[in-house]
Amino acid sequence: MTQHPASGFGPDLAEVFGPSQQDGGPELIQLLTPEGERVHHPDIDLDFSEEQLRGFYRDMVLTRRIDTEATALQRHGELGIWAQLLGQEAAQIGAGRALRPQDYVFPTYREHGVAWCRGVDPLKLLGLFRGVDQGSWDPQANNFALYTIVIGAQTLHATGYAMGMQRDGVVGTGDPERDAAVVAHFGDGASSQGDVNEAFIFAASYNAPVVFFCQNNQWAISEPIERQSRIPLYQRALGFGFPGVRVDGNDVLATYAVTQAALQRARDGQGPTLVEAYTYRMGAHTTTDDPTRYRLSDDVERWKLKDPIARVEVYLKRNGLADEAFFGDVAAEADQLGATLREGCKAMPDPSPLSMFDHVYSEMTEELAAQRDGYAAYLESFEGAATGGGH
User: Fold this and answer.
1) Is 206 a catalytic residue?
2) Which of 101, 111, 239, 286 pairs as cysteine with 107 (C-beta 3.0–4.6 A)?
3) Chain-centre distance of CA 94, in angstroms?
4) Which of 38, 294, 318, 359 is catalytic?
């Protein structure tokens, strides 16, 4: 997928957002209201082209289709589990499209929209959740690391990688084709993990070029945000010595603008930023979860009125930026994507049991080779028994 062109960079987040937000000023950065009205923030704003706006809409529709198809496949027994992103499309597409090719992403297990922006084949995501591989995309080809199941661990990986970028001389050179930054995605639940707080400490201490992007969907599985933090999550950054900002996570324009500014700040050598994308998990935590047991349906209905896709659609139609043919084409593309995912998922071959040894180390060790050979002999014993050659 090609990236949307940048329209310019916002001001220094340390000056714009730090004092105003952390002293109780305006909290939520928003450029497109739930009603589809374009608004302007006094300190950070961008002009978006018609191509960008239509691209955001298409990205979100196709990302949602990936999510709904994967959920249906799991219900039909084709996937072992699936982590839904329903309602979080704007947060992921806004952040994903703000990246430059040389930037690097460390995801959780829910960043399907960011994976889409980085050009990862959605079928490779399904392979992981189907259990036929351990994540088959090449992290270096897409600058998109493998999904991380251990909650919050990827923030440490991201911080270490960002520190490596500093030492490689690709931060603060002033060359837009060279300077790079890292984005670490995590959720509000992960913000309570020690790994995340340790990553904050190291990133602040070493002024690492990393953007900590927290999708606050307000539920750590069944634990509400008010039981996780006594203050808004973005304000935690102050205690570590770097700026934090809260953006409307259902507003793809604001998410893009804020993430772009935070990334540029990191690339320029000004250090980390915490972006809290305030959103809502419309679906379940995963397909093994039943959210009706712990949250009110009224909350879900209220957040449906803030649907990230609907507000962009309204804006496009109201301002004559897209016609019915465009929306029809996107719907047809989504249908084709759904068919491709269904057929491709079911056609995935089962892996060889011995393939589990192939990706443990970059070079096979003698001990691991012995384990592989022993397991191979064990499997062959069953083949011999089937043909009468074993006991």
Assistant:
1) no
2) 111
3) 10
4) 294
How far is residue 243's CA from residue 233's CA, in Å, rounded to a whole number? 12
Residue pair 312/252 in contact by the 8 Å Cβ criterion: yes
Strands 28-29 and 244-248: parallel
Q: What are 249's two structure tokens?
A: 């996570």
**What proportions of the chain, in percent to the nearest 5, are helix, strand and coil?**
50, 10, 40
pLDDT score of 390: 47
Quick one: which of 212, 211, 214, 213 has its CA closest to 266?
211
Q: Are 4 and 100 in contact (CB under 8 A)?
A: no
pLDDT at 4: 39
Is 315 part of the annotated catalytic residue set?
no
Task: Give the number of other Cβ atoms within 10 Å of residue 113's Cβ.
Answer: 27
Task: From residue 276, give the alpha-carbon distance in Å to each of 84, 95, 151, 186, 279.
Answer: 19, 11, 17, 10, 9
The pLDDT, as a whole number, for residue 218 is 87
The torsion of the CA quartet 192, 196, 201, 202, rounded to 10 degrees, works out to 170
* Given 57, 281, 311, 315, the catalytic residue: 281
4: its two tokens: 């949307």
Helices (H), the chain: 13-16, 18-22, 50-75, 89-97, 112-117, 122-130, 139-142, 153-167, 194-205, 236-240, 252-267, 297-304, 308-318, 324-346, 366-386
Distance CA 241, CA 159 (A): 15
Residue of 236, 246, 285, 311 with catalytic role: 285
Look at residue 385 in the predicted model and tell me its pLDDT. 60
378 is catalytic: no
Q: What is the DSSP letter of 4?
A: P
